Amino acid sequence: MTDLCDRTARDLATLIAGRKASPVEVTAAAIARIAAWEPRLNAFAAPDFDRAMDAARAAEAAVMRGDALGPLHGVPATIKDVQNVAGLPTRWGTPLTDATPAAADSPSVARLRAAGAIILGKTTLPERGWVALSDSPLTGTTHNPWRHGFTAGGSSSGAAALAAIGGGALHLGSDGAGSVRLPAHFCGVVGFKPSFGRIPYPPVAGSGLSHLGPLTRDVGDAALMTAVLAGPHPSDVTTLPGGLDATPAGPDLRGLRIAFSPALGHARVDAEFAALVAAAVAAFTELGAEVVAVDPPWGPRAPAVIRALWSAMLLPMTPTNAGIAAQMDPGLVACLRDAQSMTPAEIIPTITARQAFAGEVNTWFADSGFDLLVTPSASVAAFPTGQLHPAGWPAHAWDWLSWAEFSHPFNLSHGPAISVPCGLTAAGLPVGLQIAGARLEDAVVLRAAAAFQAARPFAVVPQTT
């Protein structure tokens, strides 16, 4: 049964619909794979395996009755613990939240269930998703499957770790400055942040930055999951009309113009890392695309915008006394203390600056004639847990963004971006390549990512117990 864990979601749905595999077998296999890694991996905030098996048995009965089946019928999925799952609490990685179980599913969870997915439970994140690492005062440390004791990235930490080990085919994460793409990069999986508004995300702190998106092993699965989740919803006035075409595209990228920026004109990148990404970019030329080395003019302006917005976004959770602060991640507390010094006169222009920056990025795509921009997904590979910065990088009480300067520009721009694994360092740690596009150009990003993954297939994480 365990090789079912290494099938794509599309394969599983086809096997189940054709009665060549059952939802019970598939779900039991995913749970068995997870059991081989847990609790050492520590990827679950709230496992829900008993209810998952009940749902799998109901899904099997539907197959045997000949019912109409959804596109994800019987496929196991997990939910980052920032979305409501009926019957489970929503804790956001912090002990300061209410442990009362949610009464109803969030829109995204409801759409997954309606498509037939089996929900295995809720995955871990750092406190309030404030950092791209995998330590939480509520759930402890989630470890990188490639190297125990190293970060899995964040804030969709458990989702990326489970995707890497085959603990379910589909994992829903969220991304406010790279929180889908960065853990995908650290764990060697695919992480897709669609255009803002593609997937409904009812209002939360930082609603102008946060997107929902899938983490998977396969680009085609990320496209299918996004298509299932996409479309307007009354609870989110920013949602876009229509859906997303998830039809697989061929490997031919002729006619595409791709900009390659190894540093966005300002970012520091580890030398080994930069060489791996540069070598991977050759695949796009082999696939027929025109690739041009370019540093977009807006690149160096992004850091100031995101740092001001990041602090402002977190202001509503400022600790009110020392007792509360003692229960929180010290880095988050440091960030909040810096944020307290901001005045409305400083915050409002920051929001305006974000909008202007988004316009500049999307205008650059339109005027330059580039369909896509390729960059590293981050500046470094995974590093030991319990620290905000890799060895040799400047220390700071909370500013982790120095090694993650490639992801947040596309939260600011509201455009699609995906991280696809492109190699391993000499130490055996994954490296991600980011493919980004202008707002609403999700299909082009997914097409290029699928072609790249087919041309440069990536080994799955070594199995362990």
Describe the structure.
The protein is an alpha/beta fold and 465 residues long. It has a single domain, classed as Amidase signature (AS) enzymes, CATH 3.90.1300. Helices cover 35% and strands 15% of the residues. It contains 14 helices and 15 strands. The protein has helices spanning 9-17, 23-37, 49-65, 107-114, 157-165, 181-187, 219-229, 271-286, 302-314, 322-326, 330-339, 344-368, 409-412, 442-455, and strands at residues 44-47, 76-80, 118-123, 135-136, 140-141, 143-144, 147-151, 170-175, 190-193, 211-216, 257-260, 290-293, 372-376, 417-424, 430-436. The strands form three sheets. The chain has an eleven-stranded mixed β-sheet. Helix 2 (23-37) packs antiparallel against helix 3, helix 9 (302-314) packs across helix 11 and helix 9 crosses helix 12 (344-368). The mean pLDDT is 94.
How is this fold's topology laid out?
Elements lengths: L8 H9 L5 H15 L6 E4 L1 H17 L10 E5 L26 H8 L3 E6 L11 E2 L3 E2 L1 E2 L2 E5 L5 H9 L4 E6 L5 H7 L2 E4 L17 E6 L2 H11 L27 E4 L10 H16 L3 E4 L8 H13 L7 H5 L3 H10 L4 H25 L3 E5 L32 H4 L4 E8 L5 E7 L5 H14 L10
Parallel strand pairs: 2-3, 2-8, 11-12, 11-13
Antiparallel strand pairs: 1-3, 4-5, 6-7, 8-10, 9-10, 9-14, 13-15, 14-15
Helix pairs in contact: 2-3, 5-6, 7-14, 9-11, 9-12
